[in-house]
Write a structure and sequence with these properties.
With 368 residues, this protein is α+β, with helices and mostly antiparallel strands. Helices cover 27% and strands 32% of the residues. It has a 6-stranded mixed sheet, sandwiched between helices. A 5-stranded antiparallel sheet has the order 2-1-4-5-6, covered by helices on one side. The model has no long low-confidence stretch (mean pLDDT 93).
């Protein structure tokens, strides 16, 4: 198993476009790392620099203890010499070749003997349950089957590291779920180091051992998925990860409406902070940490809770649960509840917010 180390990586296009800005990351051997972020955040560019398809302008990329890219030392190892496997969003299968020939292509390029090629092809296709399709052409396969062939072709050359660039984005919802399960199982069986680029937070949360959240070329947070979700390091991470997104309230102004002032006092008291502490700039709470109660509901507010009154704007059923949109003045909040709880549009309700799950962010958007 091989590790990857990125030290102060910078990638520019022209003189004014900075795609990756001073990025430092250490991917441990055998980890499944997801580079997560919105379009244009630099995640695919980072993957391409690891693979050697792009050259860094500054910094050092080390793979398995060997320096592969270091501009200041005039070191650059070409992609074909890095022993990495890369799967693209578009699969990139040869349309005129059968499944077997596609998987065999890289082995022929490496001049692997015919008997050994046959053994490896069979193992790779069987691993991904595609052995029965070896004589078919890509056009005769479904999207999920084509993706399995692309994975089998990559695994056949036995790379030290697997690099996946949004490989599931072209699949429908059911196939994406199936392929997520396939990738998770594949990682557990092979133990390879995998770097996976995605803008889909559900993919990142369900697949990764570690998630690197990026925004505008910079690293916002690098941690295991549950730490990313429960203890976001920045306001960007808090609002980007989670569906519905985290409810945010600005408490920066000195003159606040009564409900915001009460909220600020309650949070400060619970966290043993001064209510005038300027670091309490914005606070957030996730939709599942709030309970909704009708006005005539006699449920008391617990010691670790605070209460805000609001008006139901909409109830959005999703099947196993429902999302209730609540307006407080002109600010909108989302609360996830059980589908058997009935709320009417325009109904005034109480939101009971658990103070131990409230996140505080300062003027720079950093976690307090």
């Amino acid at each position: 198993m091989i590790d990857i180390k990125l030290e102060h990586i910078v990638k520019k296009y022209g003189s004014d476009v900075v795609a990756v800005d001073d990025l430092s990351l250490n991917f441990e051997p055998g980890s499944f790392v997801c580079l997560l972020g919105p379009s244009g955040c630099g995640k695919t560019t980072t993957l391409r620099m690891i693979s050697g398809l792009e050259r860094a302008n500054d910094g050092v990329i080390t793979i398995g203890g060997e320096v592969f890219d270091a501009p200041k030392q005039n070191i650059f190892v070409r992609p074909e010499h890095r022993k990495l496997g890369l799967v693209f969003q578009s699969y990139a299968l040869w349309p005129h070749m059968t499944v077997q020939e596609n998987v065999e292509f890289g082995l022929k390029m490496k001049k692997v003997g015919k008997e050994e090629r046959g053994r490896i092809i069979t193992e790779s296709l069987d691993l991904l349950r595609m052995g029965a399709y070896r004589k078919r052409y890509p056009a005769e396969l479904s999207g999920g089957q084509q993706q399995r062939v692309a994975l089998a072709r990559m695994l056949a050359v036995q790379p030290d590291i697997l690099l996946l660039d949004e490989p599931l984005s072209n699949l429908d919802a059911a196939l994406r779920l199936e392929m997520r399960s396939e990738l998770k199982s594949l990682h557990e069986r092979l133990g390879s180091t995998i770097v996976f680029v995605t803008h889909d937070q559900l993919e990142a949360m369900s697949l990764a051992t570690h998630v690197a959240v990026m925004n505008e070329g910079k690293l916002e947070q690098y941690a295991d998925p549950m730490t990313i979700y429960l203890k976001p390091a920045t306001e960007f991470v808090a609002t980007f990860v989670g569906s519905p997104p985290m409810n945010m309230v600005s408490l920066a102004n000195h003159v606040l409406p009564a409900w915001k002032n009460d909220l600020r006092i309650a949070i400060a008291a619970f966290r043993q902070l001064d209510a005038s502490d300027e670091r309490i700039c914005r606070v957030g709470f996730r939709s599942e940490t709030v309970t909704l109660h009708a006005l005539d509901d006699e449920t008391e507010v617990k010691q670790n809770q605070t209460c805000i009154k609001g008006v139901v704007k909409a109830v959005l059923p999703t099947g196993a649960e429902q999302v209730v949109s609540v307006m407080v003045d002109d600010e909108q909040f989302y609360v996830v509840t059980q589908p058997n709880l009935a709320f009417e549009n325009g109904e005034t309700i109480r939101m009971h917010i658990n103070l131990d799950t409230v996140h505080i962010f300062d003027q720079k958007g950093l976690r307090v």
